[in-house]
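TASK: fixed-backbone design
INPUT:
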């Protein structure tokens, strides 16, 4: 099965690469590098333009997780910027209003956004250019307009009914007659341009504790939401040492909870006990092992993952080699598991956008930001142009669960970014949107490169599988099935079915992520960039 998959050439550079799902965002980031900015400067320009050009996937009403490498210190850090539930967010509040699960649409679904707070942290601590200058490309595209890309048009189409529910949202994202913006048509968001001009002039504090915050809260309250000034003003960016594991001599760095990054590490620990080189790339035997590892780590995530500021999580145990050994022992090499429960431990004390950047000094960012579902909650705070996330849907209402909603708590997150290091320097900077697909896609990329030696674009282009269910509360107890892309060989799926896996065929590029990838050659220092053809973007090099 050693078939090379590459739809486009790998991009090479030794000065810098930006890989984004938005061509305009990649171009904005690479221009910053060309103008003398560093990777952190480029990342902010890229993120801001993505928030304009792929508005259904990310935005200033969303949140950020990142893993980043500081070349000056040789240190790798993690960043989490996601909001805490407002003071009225309790199970009793939602159940008294007739909810049996957390709402996914409207102002009650939104968490306080963390996007701009993350910008401020990077700009203050690592940037070399004024944030106001880095926001200018985004302001231009919001004010003057930009053409809708093919995938962005599909996200618009999928969210039409959601957006139409709210006049403030329909006014921004639908045409005056209620029809959709289509591929190649110009779209602008003048209200958002004006909001960003205020941020550029007065700073991020205007958003969290000034005139923009006042406007946001007033519009939420008028629409029946519970977003309050306190939850905006008290937003904190969390920066930390990432959680890590060793995989075949490489160090994999991931985000800490409430991110689900821990389960990528747990999957790698389980897979490390098998010699994947005994099997060909995309062989049914290798895929079977990965699917079975996925089933086990998702059971562990659904049982234990929550906000560590409010719940005790047995994190060290879950990402330990010993725990992986016990989980690996339950895998049958020839038969698919039908039911999988969490591993016993002793407790200690659908839309997103991803991009990656590296500069000539070796500074690197793995950056993921999201509204959660397409266009998030669907709710725009009138006059701001900002559509807000629906991350509150990640909470549960049942009492006693680690992820039960409560004031000041952050929901369990599907968002995660990663960097693989060799000898304490970046080797792979990569990630993907895709909710529960994210750790599964990241596993497929890492093993394709480390275990099978695929090139950057080959690894990105190879057919993918996606095991469901995942973490969405209404579906967690559904029967297992494996969704595969149309290019997956039938000989592989026939063999998997023989092992007891239920196979369904999914549309390529919808459920199977949009990977952006940079690899660094440890011997030559040359960068290799790849952008997923399942999206609209590209790898831009300096």
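OUTPUT:
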């Amino acid at each position: 099965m050693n078939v090379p998959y590459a739809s486009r050439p790998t991009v090479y550079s030794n000065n810098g690469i930006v890989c984004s799902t938005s061509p305009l965002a990649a171009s904005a980031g690479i221009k910053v590098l060309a103008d003398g900015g560093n990777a952190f400067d480029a990342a902010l320009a890229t993120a801001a333009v993505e928030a304009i050009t792929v508005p259904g996937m990310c935005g200033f009403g969303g949140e950020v997780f990142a893993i980043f490498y500081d070349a000056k210190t040789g240190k790798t850090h993690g960043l989490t910027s996601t909001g805490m539930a407002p003071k009225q967010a309790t199970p009793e509040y939602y159940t008294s209003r007739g909810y049996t699960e957390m709402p996914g649409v409207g102002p009650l679904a939104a968490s306080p956004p963390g996007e701009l707070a993350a910008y401020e942290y990077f700009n203050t601590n690592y940037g070399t250019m004024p944030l106001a200058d880095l926001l200018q490309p985004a302001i231009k595209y919001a004010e003057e307009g930009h053409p809708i890309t093919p995938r962005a048009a599909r996200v618009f189409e999928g969210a039409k009914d959601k957006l139409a529910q709210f006049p403030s949202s329909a006014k921004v994202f639908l045409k005056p007659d209620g029809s959709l913006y289509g591929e190649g048509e110009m779209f602008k968001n003048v209200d958002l341009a004006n909001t960003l001009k205020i941020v550029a002039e007065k700073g991020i504090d205007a958003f969290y504790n000034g005139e923009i915050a006042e406007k946001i809260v007033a519009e939420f309250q008028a629409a029946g939401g519970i977003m309050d000034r306190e939850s905006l003003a008290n937003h904190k960016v969390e920066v930390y040492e990432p959680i890590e594991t060793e995989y075949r001599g490489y160090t994999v760095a991931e985000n800490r909870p409430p991110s689900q990054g821990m389960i990528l590490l747990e999957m790698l620990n389980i897979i490390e006990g098998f010699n994947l080189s005994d099997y060909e790339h995309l062989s049914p035997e290798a895929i079977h092992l990965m699917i079975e590892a996925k089933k086990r780590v998702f059971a562990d995530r659904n049982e234990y993952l929550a906000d560590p500021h409010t719940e005790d999580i047995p994190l060290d145990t879950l990402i330990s080699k010993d725990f992986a050994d016990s989980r690996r022992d339950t895998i049958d090499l020839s038969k698919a598991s039908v039911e999988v429960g969490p591993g016993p431990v002793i407790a200690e004390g659908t839309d997103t956008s991803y991009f990656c950047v590296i500069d000539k000094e070796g500074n690197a960012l793995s950056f993921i930001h999201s509204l959660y579902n397409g266009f998030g909650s669907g709710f725009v705070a009138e006059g701001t142009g900002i559509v807000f996330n629906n991350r509150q849907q990640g909470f549960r209402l049942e009492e006693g669960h680690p992820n039960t909603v409560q004031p000041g708590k952050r929901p369990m997150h599907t968002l995660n970014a990663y960097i693989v290091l060799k000898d304490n320097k970046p080797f792979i900077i990569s990630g993907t949107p895709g909710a529960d697909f994210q750790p599964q896609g990241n596993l497929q990329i890492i093993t394709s490169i480390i275990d099978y030696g695929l090139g950057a674009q080959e690894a990105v282009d190879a057919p993918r599988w996606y095991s469901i269910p995942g973490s969405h509360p209404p579906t967690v107890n559904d029967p297992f099935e494996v969704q595969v892309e149309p290019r997956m060989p039938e000989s592989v799926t026939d063999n998997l079915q023989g092992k007891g896996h239920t196979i369904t065929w999914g549309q390529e590029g919808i459920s199977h992520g949009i990977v952006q990838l940079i690899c660094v050659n440890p011997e030559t220092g040359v960068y290799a960039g790849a952008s997923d053809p399942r999206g609209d973007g590209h790898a831009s090099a300096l």
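COMMENT: The longest helix spans residues 284-304.
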